[in-house]
Amino acid sequence: MNSNESLMSYLCLRSLLILFNIAFWLSGLSLIWIGVWLQTDFENYLIISANYSEQVYGILIVMGATIIFVTSLACSCIVKIQSMLVINGGILITMLFSLLSLSIYIYTYKNQLINGITDGISNEINNYNFSNSTNNDNLLDTVQKNLQCCGNQSFIDWPQDAMPKSCFKNLKLYNSVPNITNIYETGCAYKLKNVINKNFTAIGLTISIIALFPFFGAVLSFGLSLMCNKGGYERIV
């Protein structure tokens, strides 16, 4: 391979590494978005669990911000300070293991949440205040309305003479004597577990896929560093 071909290979490899870093940067942005989404739109489905924890939001947001910082710095190193490529590769390897650990944590936390759903809903039902709605009451009402469910395992978990309006399909037909045909018969525990399992499995899978970016990025960084040392391209390009 002549010098021109080697130089072209080097430039192509460097461009590919920059593209990988851009994709990795976007993935960091997506992790921040997921963290914010869990803390806002999806929080009502999580906070009802007896094993709820706020740590997952912060971990996702911090990881996303770290990825954005690292990739921004890496792009600068690739273009301007090519002697830092080995360090960049080492950082990417660290990010790889961090993302894999985060993926495992997400799956573990998902199971903890699911295991705490039944106790959490039971606690909400026992503390439900019909005369003066509180934030907790509104939380359970929101879950029942959105998931079209009632009670824990079924609507019979509620007292028949004191059932919240959120259990009814049509509020116009609401009365003091519940009509079973107008009540959501499926319990919220089953539906809530399915929703959490589906979304957290998707999040864990997404993080696992994102972990491929630092892996390939590290391989390209080490390869580019090797080419740079052999061909002296840092002085040429």
From TrEMBL:
Keywords annotated in UniProt: Disulfide bond, Membrane, Transmembrane, Transmembrane helix
Membrane association type: Multi-pass membrane protein
Primary residence: membrane
Pfam families, per the entry: Tetraspanin
Intrachain S-S bonds: 150-167
Sequence intervals crossing the membrane: 12-36, 56-79, 86-107, 200-226
PANTHER family given in the database record: TETRASPANIN
Protein name, UniProt field: Tetraspanin
Organism for this UniProt entry: Glossina palpalis gambiensis
Lineage start: Eukaryota, Metazoa, Ecdysozoa, Arthropoda, Hexapoda
